[in-house]
Amino acid sequence: MKKPVPLLSRPVRRPTEPSVSKRDSSSSSMVQSQAACLENALGVPSDLVIKHVSDSICVVFLEPIVDGAAVRESLLKPLSKLESDEILDAVSVGAKLPVASVEQAPSLDDAVEGLLDGKVALIVDGCVAPFLLDLRGRVVRQIEAPVSQPSVRGPRDSFNERLYDNLALIRQRVRNRNLRVWETVVGSETRTRVAMCYLEGKASEDVVEVVKQRLLEIDAPNVLDSSYLLPYLAMRRWMLFPPAAATERADRAAAGILNGRIVVICDNSPFVLVMPIQLLALFQASEDHYNLSIHSLLLRTVRAIGWFAATIAPGVYVGLASFNPGILPPNAIMTLSAARQGVPYPPIIEVLIMDIALEMLAEASARLPTYIGGAAMVVGGLVLGTAAAEARLVSTVMIVVVAVTAIGSFAMPDYQNELSWRAAKYLYTVFAAFLGIYGLATAGFIILVYLCSMDVLGVSYMSPFAPWRWTAIAKDTMVRVPTPLGIELEKVQRKEEAEGTADA
User: Nearest 5 degrees, angle CA 94-CA 99-CA 102?
Assistant: First the structure.
């Protein structure tokens, strides 16, 4: 941890502009000394306001991160009518001033941290440390529709970069007295607030304690986003698949809490972490629960087909073209051979060229402005497709394989999960280049073993298939049963867990 800044380490430079800091020569020495110490600890910043309300009362705050109107109406006006002997402790301050939160700082160092957090320091003659008043006001985005996880049907609000706005969105949905919110500060330099939400009685007590302990043990100087927390929470430095679901949808976070999961919210980040998560949940969209069950089955089936095609389609092409063309019908073999006529390099090089070109095109379209990204995709598609095939750099069958791969990968609802399987695709392709169809099976077995060996906070990543839980599989896997039947299945599952007869 970074050592606190010494408050009297250097002389105080007096601001020359009266609009920034006004000083009265008749102010008491204690008030003057505390204000000077706070100013010196912050490096005499130009946005620090020191306002002497009277000879014995002084207000100090950082102007950009407080609510100016609230300071004027709820603090300065009432203080102008008070004397210092009327303000003795935090209770009297709260009774005299219309502010939501009042506390007395244990020391001047704690008062400096409060100023950096957007609070107002109230210095009163006779008090050894300032009072901290919560009048924070920040420039944040308004609550808007989700950008990265849109849906046709469902709520249109999403998280923003303010911690308490995100907590409000969750509390509006989970109006339960058992909802617990635990907060801490991480990052020795950024001092980022992090909150953990869970439903007592549904979330595992062991998992809750593990998450708390890991958050308290984070030894990182900078925490600017919720993604910075993932390696510390998952206790894994190298991960192929996401150990948590990062979502900007408030309804998905609330659903996770109601299902016994833990939601970790990081200040300044619009994405919250839902933990522990299973691989199957990353293929499910929030919209599945707003459609009819038969419609959800159709959409999930389409996603499964897209995932399967995006992952192994290039490897299947390499295996069939290089090693095992005999498993195809004769007409298909002739078509594949004719399509590759004139291509100057083996199928593995052909696949790698097109896959890398597709990755560059997807990355470019994501980084370009919205009104240019669509045009870039169209132009890139024409160049990669028509021009490359006509120049005989790739076969026409390869163009179809690339198109199927792209469409299938974009059908996955979770972006981090999509990136993971896009990376796994190259493992399938390389193994197929050496062993053909047997290489595909080998790569699939390796990934399956890796997934089964993973656990997030003690919960199997492949649950409910490994270990096998028939009630969870029947309730919400490929088929999402109607809500009344799902409630009945959950009751059966809870009863089996209590009796110790659940499938394992």
Answer: 50
Angle at 113 between CA 270 and CA 209, to 5 degrees: 55
Measured CA distances, 249 to 143, 149, 160, 182, 193 (Å): 11, 7, 10, 21, 20
Whether residue 230 contacts residue 273, with contact meaning beta carbons closer than 8 Å, is answered with yes
Token couple for 12? 């105080």
Going from N- to C-terminal start, the domains of the chain cover 29-133, 163-277, 289-460, 470-499
What's residue 466's pLDDT?
Answer: 79
CB atoms within 10 A of CB 304: 15
Cα dist from 128 to 12, 111, 165, whole Å: 20, 11, 34
Q: Model pTM?
A: 0.81
Q: Which residues pair with 123 in a beta bridge?
A: 58
Residue 15 has pLDDT above 60, yes or no: no
Average pLDDT for 235-261: 90
374-to-152, 366, 386, 409 alpha-carbon distances in Å: 21, 10, 18, 18
What is residue 177's three-state secondary structure?
A: coil
Rg of the chain over Cα atoms, rounded to whole angstroms, equals 30
Phi and psi angles of residue 186, each rounded to the nearest 5 degrees, phi first: -125, 155
- Residue pair 338/332 in contact by the 8 Å Cβ criterion: no
Residue type, 276: P
The structure tokens listed for 424 are: 């796994």
pLDDT-based confidence at residue 209 (cuts at 50, 70, 90): very high
Cα-flanking dihedrals φ and ψ of residue 325, to 5°? -70, -20
Amino acid at residue number 360: M
| Band of pLDDT at residue 22, cut at 50, 70 and 90 | very low
Residue with tokens 């003690």: 458
